[in-house]
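pinging the channel bc i need a second pair of eyes. not urgent but kinda urgent?? the chain im working w is below, pasted from the shared doc
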Amino acid sequence: MIKALIFDCFGVVVTETLTPFRDRYFSHDKRALEQLNDMTKAVDLGFLSKVDYHREISRLCGLSEQEIYNTLENGSTLDTRMIDVIKSYKPRYKIGMLSNVSPRRIDDFLSSQDKKLFDDLALSYELGVTKPDYAAYRAAAERLGVSPEECVFIDDQERNVTAACEVGMRSIHYKNFAQFERELKKLLQ
């Protein structure tokens, strides 16, 4: 029986900017892409500051730090449709968020009222682990007081969805809002 819905932040609740940026500027250079991925993990764990992150990305791709800031930090927006979905399921299910996110970044998008919709925010920099590490999913379920088998996990990254399934969660690979709604309704019937 499903008791909890766990949402990713970027690409699901908040529009994603990193993936299109990564595809545009780093897909042609495997070494630079690996460096970007390592830096992104470090910033999501709180080991690297945003200023240093932007500086290093600038060095790798040749864009100015301001261009990177504008693209990565100002390009995302809260999807109010998703907030409405969360509100509609809140009375019947525990609601969680599991996100690879740097310190304070979540505050850029979720108001204190939005945060109250979630029974728990399992954020990588607090957990000390990022998705797709199995420990992240187990921690998110545990913090909600449920088993992984009692959760539906929603993420836009296929590798994260695969890992969630491997720990026993039912999962939805988010591609667009209409597809997500259809799949969630089927899982919850």
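so The mean pLDDT is 94. and The longest helix spans residues 30-44. — does that match what u expected or am i reading it wrong
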